[in-house]
Amino acid sequence: MPSSTRRWGAAAGCHHRLVDDDDWRLSSPGADLAGHTFRWAEWVRRRDDWDHDHCEFCWAKMTDLSKPDTDDHEYFSGGWVTAAASDGGRWVCPTCFRELSESLDLRATATG
């Protein structure tokens, strides 16, 4: 996660353990992203009334809000987004990408 990326929320300071085989995220709807390629991006609004996207695995929010509303979700100002246009710009938070990339063969690319 680039140093300029901001994190907010209850879990922002937590240290996460390695993924166990029974990690609930491995059976989440995002699990269909196995083998996909992602690129790092700072989150930007697609239109004026769009203020966030969710991580496909844990539902953390990617947003450009300087101080998002506080709830039980974790927030990031950037994350990993699917690299192929046909994937529709599906987001994965830095935590889930780091923890699940090996288990699900999530691939990072240096190009946009």
Describe this structure in words.
The chain is mainly β and 112 residues long. The protein has one domain. The protein contains 1 helix and 8 strands. The protein has one helix spanning 94-104; strands spanning 7-8, 37-42, 53-54, 61-62, 75-76, 78-82, 91-92, 107-109. It has a 4-stranded mixed β-sheet, with no helix packed on it. A hairpin with an 8-residue loop joins strand 6 and strand 7 (91-92). The longest helix is centred in the C-terminal third of the chain and has 11 residues, at 94-104. The protein is globular and about 40 Å long. It starts with 6 loop residues before the first strand and ends with a strand.
Q: What's the quick description here?
A:
This protein has 112 residues and is mainly beta. It is built from one helix and eight strands, in the order E-E-E-E-E-E-E-H-E. The longest helix has 11 residues, at 94-104.
